[in-house]
Each structure stands twice: as C-alpha cells, then as structure tokens.
Specification:
With 351 residues, the protein is mostly helical. It has a domain of 110 residues: Up-down Bundle (V-type ATP synthase subunit C fold). Helix 4 packs parallel to helix 6, helix 13 packs antiparallel against helix 14 and helix 14 runs antiparallel to helix 18. The longest helix is centred in the C-terminal third of the chain and has 26 residues. The radius of gyration is 21 Å and the shape is globular.
Length: 351
C-alpha cells in the first residue's frame, strides 16, 4: 500500500505544486523597486505580500527590522514544514534529509549567540526550524545558560558527536569555523550514503548533492585564496563532488589568476560554471564571485527540474529559490536599516 500512496500521481501533484509556488516568488523587478524604498515602505510591502500572516501575527511584539527578520524566518520555516507535509513517499524522506542542514545552522547560531552574550529573543529571530530540531527543541536550547550546556542538551542527536569531540576544551570562537566545517562534511557524507542506499530517486538526489558540493568547494577556493597565509585547504574541502579535494588542492597552489582559471576550468563538467569562471579572470570582489556562483547553481537546479519534472529536483529547486528570496529581503531590510546606498545593497542581492 505504501508504494501505491507514493506512486506517480502524488509525485505529479507535489511537483506541480512546487512549480505553482515558484511562480509566486518575487521577480527581479520587485527587488529593483524596493531598492528605492525606505525601511518603512519595505515593511509595508512585505506585510502586503505572501508574508502578511506572519507580519500581522508579530506586529504587536516587533517593529522595524526586528519585525521583518522574525516574519521572514517564521514564513520560511512554515513553508518548509508545509512542503514536508504534502510530499509523498521517498520524496519526503529525501526532502527531510536535505533540510537537516538547517539543524547545523540553527545550533551554530545559538552557540555563537550564547558565546557573544546575545539576548534569547534576538537569536530566535533568525532561527529557521525546518530540520529535525523543531521550534520547541530550539527554544529549549535557547534556555541553556552557556554554549557548553547547549551542546550537552544535544546528546542523542546526529550532530552531537562532532560538537562534543571538537569542544572538549570549551567553546571558543576560533574553533567554531572548524566545527562548522566538520559538521557540513559529515552532513554531505550522510546525504551521499543515503543517495547510494537504494532509495527511489537516489540518483537524481545525488546529481544535485554533487553539484552543491562542487559549488561549495569552488566558493571555498576563492574565499581562501584571498588569505595569502593559507597554503593547505585539504581539511576544509568536502569530498563527494565531481572534482576531488586532491585536484582542488593542486589548483589552489597556483597563484597567478589566469593560470588558476586555466587549471580549474577543465575539471568542471557544468558548462555554465565553466563560462562563469572564464569571466572571473577579471578582478571581482569575493561577494560578487559568491553571488555569481549561487546564480549558476540556481539556474542548474532549474535545468535539472525541467529534465526530471516529477522527481526530487523541483522540490529542491523551490527550497533553494525560496531561501534566496528570504536572503534578498533580509539584505534589503538590513541595508536600509544601516543606511547603505541602493547600489551597495544591490551588490548583495541574488537576482
């Protein structure tokens, strides 16, 4: 019976729903229009859009940037939770596995907030309970007095062993990037193992995971190249992409930009990514490079979803596009709050 419930008709239904949801995402023109708005106007615009319910619910407790931040986080979490509810069979299992990445982000946000003495309410504003750790559990973590107690409260959860092992001497800011890197390496290793487990749709799932790993590793290459003191990046690269960490380490050693690009391009199978790298011979800021990489990744996900319209791809494509809608709205709100010029804010948008 389970196989019947997870058969073609429910798959067609949920993938069609993803396309409808995607069509409701904000178009580029709306972001361009918001660049010329003030924070109050942006708040009003958000409150009259698909975020109206969250804004109305929170308006008695929050104002200004805090209202937007919290409403966006609530909406994203609700949307991800709703998608898991309507997704059938193995598509649900794959979606849940992928969304566990939010557990890492949420826990690290709480740990960093505790470390820096942030108020619980301020930390809660940016949490997105979309993974295994729900809002009730995250609220319990927020009640813990120290980062170390937060980690102990995670005993029995999948991320606990790495957190516990790497913070035996106490939680310090300088070790958190290494902890984060190890958590994501384990996350991707688990996803790859799951994709290879024989689960239906695993092949399509793996196609996206390898793309995600490749983009993440290339972003790391550019990020670390900006620091001349680093000579070895093998420990921060993620295994499982189409380019091995060993090959990327060799390319990383090349200092001349043109020679670096010449060596990297042949390793890459995705044509739009190769084309982007050719453009990066010109001087670009790290932020510009990262945003261009995100845009290529989203475009490739869209291509995958069209090639496999009734698979995990339309779901993953929508999850990521929705995430970057939130990213863009936050960038606009924070930019306006900080008094940044429209053109400066424009540089942070994924459009």
């Amino acid at each position: 019976m389970a196989e019947i419930r997870a058969g073609p008709v429910p798959y067609i239904y949920v993938c069609t729903r993803m396309r409808v949801r995607k069509s409701k995402l904000l178009p580029r023109e709306e972001y361009m229009r918001m660049l010329n708005m003030g924070l109050a106007e942006i708040t009003r615009f958000v409150g009259e859009s698909q975020y109206k319910r969250e804004v109305d619910e929170l308006a008695t407790s929050f104002r200004g940037i805090d209202l937007i931040e919290t409403a966006l986080s609530w909406n994203l979490a609700k949307e991800y939770q709703n998608i898991q509810k309507i997704t059938p069979g193995t598509l649900k299992d794959l979606t849940r596995a992928y969304l566990r990445r939010w557990d890492i982000q949420n826990v690290l946000t709480i740990i960093r907030g505790k470390l820096h003495g942030e108020k619980k309410g301020k930390i809660r504003e940016v949490l997105v309970p979309a993974g295994e750790l729900d809002r009730v559990f995250l609220d319990r973590l927020l009640e813990e007095p120290t980062p170390e107690r937060v980690i102990e409260a995670l005993k029995g959860k999948g991320i606990y062993p790495i957190l516990s092992r790497m913070t035996e001497g106490g939680v310090r800011e300088e070790i958190l990037p290494k902890v984060e890197n190890e958590l994501y390496k384990q996350f991707y290793a688990d996803l790859i193992a799951y994709a290879h487990s024989g689960i239906k749709g695993g092949r399509q799932f793996l196609d996206y995971i390898t793309l995600d790993i490749d983009i993440t590793n290339i972003r790391t290459l550019f990020r670390v190249r900006a620091d001349p003191s680093v000579s070895d990046i093998s420990g921060v690269l993620i295994a499982g992409g189409t380019i091995s960490p060993q090959a990327l380490q060799r390319v990383f050693q090349i200092k001349d930009t043109n020679e670096f690009i010449d060596a990297l391009v042949p390793l890459i199978k995705v044509r739009p990514l190769r084309e982007l790298l050719e453009k990066l011979r010109e001087e670009r800021s790290l932020r510009e490079i990262e945003i261009e990489l995100i845009k290529v990744q989203l475009a490739e996900m869209e291509t995958m979803s069209k090639l496999h319209p009734f698979s995990i791809h339309p779901i993953l494509a929508y999850l990521e596009m929705k995430k970057y809608e939130i990213f863009n709205l936050r960038a606009l709100a924070r930019g306006k709050e900080s008094g940044l010029a429209p053109e400066r804010i424009r540089g942070y948008l994924v459009v």
